[in-house]
Amino acid sequence: MYIVTAEEMYKVDRETISTVGLDGKILMENAGREASKEIEKRITKEDKAVILIGSGNNGGDGFVIARVLAEAGYSIKVVQVAKDEKITGDAAYHKEVYQQFGGQVEHYYENITDVALKEADVIIDAMLGIGVRGELRGDILTVTKQVNKQNAYVISIDIPSGLPAEEGIAHFQAIEADTTIMIGAVKQSAVCQNTSSYYGEWIVVDIGFPEKLFHTHTKRHLWQQSDFQESFPKREVNSHKGNHGRGLVIGGSESMPGSVLMTTKAALRTGAGLLTTASVKNVISMIAGKSPEAMYISTSETNGCITGIDNIELSGFDAIAIGVGLGRSDETAKGIFPSLLQFNGPIIIDADGLYHLKPYLAAFASRQPPLILTPHPGELAALMDVSVSDLLMEPFKYSSEFTNRFNCYLLLKGKYTIITDPDGNQIVESSGNPGLAKGGSGDVLTGMVLAMVMQSRSIFEGINNACFLHGKSADLLVQERHSEQDLLAGDVIQGIPKAIRTFS
Question: Catalytic activity annotated for this protein (predicted)?
């Protein structure tokens, strides 16, 4: 499923009409009919529905929806929040068809419309589409404020009116929808922190845009179960432990022994063939009995923190994960990072590893083997010398800039996790729930990324699938026996087998 900006969506729409030859009136009919199917799943014929219609294609979709719902026996009232001369082109055609079917159109008057909205059980918002520029004004602004005061169930078509379709816009007024039925593709603002809440629940309907056009115009995708199933590694009958990766986890300190234990257990549970954990002696003595399937190596240490890995033959491993529970001693970074720069395989850096990374980032970027970073927004903002608020306003842009500059894979964690590869391809993974907002969740994810990277056809697929499994494990646990309050990172590890059985 593709994720688009307004400009990208317009290109797909125009080329579908001009190059492929699918008439705009047909696309509008398809959009209205597909949206109506979703609306009918959510309302009853006893509900009083008000459809707010503006100018442009979004309004044209609204006229098709009005006709389809009226013909199906639903109780609807159409309010046109635009002057007649503004209804042109394909939208005017579908308005005329709606009226030829006997449909009535009321024009917006503030007091009358306000009463209609207060009496409505359902409000269908088809006022403005993805072409909004600047803040709302006039009648549209008044209606938007009126809608947001109501207790009615609000359904927006394609995008909540007034909302920008892309990231990076801070000032706007918009409909606060309970459900948004997006047309053709996910709009970028639906997966950005400052705008996603306006969409409510959302769904995408297919109206006939050719996939090849999306492939041409956007590098952003939503990772879905079908993607996971197609790319999740399957084991051969005669496979052995060496076929599924020899991984090394470097981390842990006397004050944070649990983090490296969770990373170790998560990597094993996600299918790593052989796993070795390197940590200080006391940490190993604390955790080895809790994960006997792993092997362990003691590192050099000072005051309970790792200060060197010279005794480890790194060439014997396929991939390394470093950073969880590492601590922030300067001696730790000086004793580990120069050695890691010589490793000829994928390196995953998380947590305290990211804290130490900045002075070494250019050197890591110059390596040929893959570098994989798994920051939360605060960690990435620190690496880029930007504010967290600026980063969250344009997470796609900053992620792309960072991976392009440092030739790495970036996993920016959040409700909508954004995974970016060095070529600028971006995946959004949206599974998971607020139960993951606990210490240790990132440590678990790091272990899963390590395991999946060693087993997958590509680094990118491995990262995407690790995020999918991580979120789905949490979702299944909350559905079946946990709440978002009591869910622990260790529970997520135990949920991995169920997630694999359910979704692979």
Answer: (6S)-NADPHX + ADP = AMP + phosphate + NADPH + H(+); (6R)-NADPHX = (6S)-NADPHX; (6S)-NADHX + ADP = AMP + phosphate + NADH + H(+); (6R)-NADHX = (6S)-NADHX
Say whether 205 counts as a known binding-site residue: no
Q: Looking at the DSSP assignment, which residues form a beta bridge with residue 77?
A: 50
pLDDT class of 237 with cuts at 50, 70, 90: confident
Check the annotation: does 171 bind a ligand: no
Annotated ligand binding at 61? The verdict is yes
- The tokens for 201 are 């629940």
H/E stretch holding 297: strand 295-298
The structure tokens listed for 456 are 């997958």
Annotated ligand binding at 57? The verdict is yes
Half-sphere exposure of 337 (CA within 13 A, CB side): 24
Per-residue pLDDT of 138-171, as tens digits, reads 999 999 999 999 999 999 999 999 999 999 998 9
pTM comes to 0.96
Residue 126, both tokens: 């088809």
443 annotated binding-site participant = yes
55 is in an annotated binding site: no
444 is in an annotated binding site: no
Structural class in CATH, domain 227-233+246-503:
alpha beta
Is the pLDDT at 395 greater than 90, yes or no? yes
Q: Is 414 annotated as a binding residue?
A: yes
Distance CA 28, CA 30 (A): 5
Q: Which CATH number fits domain 3-218: 3.40.50.10260, 3.20.20.140, 3.30.420.10, 3.20.20.380?
A: 3.40.50.10260
Please say if the pLDDT value at position 370 is more than 80: yes
Give dist(CA 188, CA 174) in Å, integer.
16
